[in-house]
Amino acid sequence: MADEKDELQETELSYDQKKEIAKWFLLNAPAGEINYVAKDLKEVLSDEEVYNEAAMEAFPVYNKSHMICLEMPSRVGDVIVSSFSEITENEYLDPRTAQVAIVDHVKQICSKVRPAYDEELPSSYIEEFRSALDAEIQRYVSESYPKGVSTVNSVKGKDADGPGTDFELVVLITARKLSPQNFCNGSWRSVWHIDFQDESQVLDIKGKVQVGAHYFEEGNVELDAKKEFQDSTIFQSADDCAIAIANIIRHHETEYLGALEVAYSKLPDNTFKDLRRKLPVTRTLFPWQNTLQFSLTREVEKELGLGKNSIIDYVYVVSVYLLYKPRISSRYQTFCANAMNILDFLKLQKAPMPGIEPGSPG
Amino acid sequence: MEAALGLLRRMPPKQSETALSALLSLLPQHSSDLLSQVDLPLQVLRDAESRKDFILCEYNRDADSYRSPWSNKYHPPLEDALYPSSELRKLEVEANDIFAIYRDQYYEGGISSVYMWEDDNEGFVACFLIKKDGSKSGHGRRGCLEEGAWDAIHVIQVGPEEEEMAHYCLTSTIMLSLTTDDEPSGKFGLSGSIRRQMKMELAVAEGHLCNMGRMIEELEGKLRNSLDQVYFGKTREMVCTLRPPAEIVQMRLPDS
């Protein structure tokens, strides 16, 4: 390895450079596609060593940020791999079953489980809140997400024995739909931080939802949508808190979904128009056959001795007016009338008119 | 090469430039293939003499200089450079003028350029390019978009004239990206690219420009609709599959 690093030829990349590039490709894979990316990447790199090292570094980051769910052996359930449930890089806690899953990031499987140690779990006081919330969220997720998985992790103050301290729980909801045979994949990730503030007896709620979709049949289109939320509720008993929090999350997520639908429905006629209209304002196709008209403008310019930029807009507008008289808006009509007057004036003058800028009349 | 193209298809469309340069450095021996098969967002240069912008692409490049369709000069200046024949240049000038008007009608702004050059089969090749910045700060008329970019590349091969007919082969690539940032929907971004081909045999009676223009208009329209309905539609479908819109929302009340 040291030799390769020293051999920095002009066109040859160093080992580290190749590794960084490989990591970049892996980390930017859309949800559920990292293995396809990995396959193509291996071929492009044709260097097992670089790929393996890059994979060892990139897969854990990818898995955690995409919050992948892995099935635990013996049908114990699923564990969500995330920075909130991380104990060590290869060990992730599932608080619901009090098991720690040992995972192989590159293979994306859970190889085995072990029971969690006491110090890895929250105290029984915190656990009361956590499990009540977990149950409520599970209920919500099973109602609203056909393929959703959720978990509630205790992140701060998990050792508190009773009231008097602040603590924080994090709700994770993740759903994925992978249809590679239909060239379409998508993922939904919700992360909700619930900050239980003891002194003010308030629950401060901050949420972030990220939705992604990728469709790539004879083309390549990606959706990348995200939104942040802020809300709060009062500090009550564990059960009542759970219900209140779940209702708040449900409310915001449902509203967000509705807003996404609205954004999509505005696309064809509004949003897209800022890029390209469906048809010109004349509501007819472009009159390509009238190229004769455009050649005429050049003749007129030459005759009047004017530069190209100063007159073509006027003559074009006049042509459009003459072609589409009944369908032109009144604003265009006024403009055309002005343009025609100026043209007549110019023909009489037969001299360049200084100070004519394209598009200057109102 | 297949693997390289596969990688490019999966990377986020907005990162296509980074992805391509990464691949070029990994596979220098395939660089000409990669560059010809992959399209990147278009770059623009200013032609100070004509006071207009023009679009850069492989078709107006010679060494490191680019030819402006307005002044027919290379930027930066180049000796012994390639130019189209004077007859073709006449057609090129006309094409640029008309295409600029077409562009204005459909895009209400933006920049366009047309380049032509003779090919080996006694025909010629024309490249029509459009670049539009549809964001609020750019040419977006309605102010919907936080960020919006449309790049269109149309390459037409025109065969030699035979019995008053000619064969046209058009390959169109559209690359676009749009992002809205509103209160209710947060940051909503769609981006992507598609490419299609269209071949036609047409009478040359009305001139090459007319035929090429019509083909481009038709294909552009089809691609715009396809992107909008099929491609974006599929992503919309996916969102609804992940989380179907709630018909009945059951709100649980506290048991107290």
TrEMBL record, chain A:
InterPro entries: CapZ_alpha, CapZ_alpha/beta, CapZ_alpha/beta_2, CapZ_alpha_1, F-actin_cap_asu_CS
Keyword RNA-binding set for record: no
SUPFAM superfamilies per record: Subunits of heterodimeric actin filament capping protein Capz
Gene Ontology annotations for the cellular component aspect, listed alphabetically: cortical cytoskeleton; F-actin capping protein complex
UniProt-listed Gene3D superfamilies: F-actin capping protein, alpha subunit (3.30.1140.60), F-actin capping protein, beta subunit (3.90.1150.210)
Entry keywords, A to Z: Actin capping, Actin-binding
Name of a matching Pfam family: F-actin_cap_A
Coiled-coil features, chain-numbered ranges: none
A Gene Ontology BP annotation from the UniProt entry: barbed-end actin filament capping
Gene Ontology molecular functions: actin filament binding
Cited function: F-actin-capping proteins bind in a Ca(2+)-independent manner to the fast growing ends of actin filaments (barbed end) thereby blocking the exchange of subunits at these ends. Unlike other capping proteins (such as gelsolin and severin), these proteins do not sever actin filaments.
Protein family according to the UniProt entry: Belongs to the F-actin-capping protein alpha subunit family.
Subunit note: Heterodimer of an alpha and a beta subunit.
Name of the protein: F-actin-capping protein subunit alpha
Organism: Brassica napus
Lineage start: Eukaryota, Viridiplantae, Streptophyta, Embryophyta, Tracheophyta
UniProtKB/TrEMBL annotation, chain B:
InterPro entries xrefs: CapZ_alpha/beta, CapZ_alpha/beta_2, CAPZB, CAPZB_N, F-actin_capping_bsu_CS
Keyword Cytoplasm in record: yes
Top-level taxon of the source organism: Eukaryota
Pfam families listed in its UniProt record: F_actin_cap_B
Compartmental location: Cytoplasm, Cytoskeleton
Protein keywords: Actin capping, Actin-binding, Cytoplasm, Cytoskeleton
Self-association and partners: Heterodimer of an alpha and a beta subunit.
Protein family: Belongs to the F-actin-capping protein beta subunit family.
PANTHER family documented for this protein: F-ACTIN-CAPPING PROTEIN SUBUNIT BETA, F-ACTIN-CAPPING PROTEIN SUBUNIT BETA ISOFORMS 1 AND 2
Function: F-actin-capping proteins bind in a Ca(2+)-independent manner to the fast growing ends of actin filaments (barbed end) thereby blocking the exchange of subunits at these ends. Unlike other capping proteins (such as gelsolin and severin), these proteins do not sever actin filaments.
Name by which UniProt lists this protein: F-actin-capping protein subunit beta
Organism per entry: Brassica napus
Taxonomic lineage from the root: Eukaryota, Viridiplantae, Streptophyta, Embryophyta, Tracheophyta
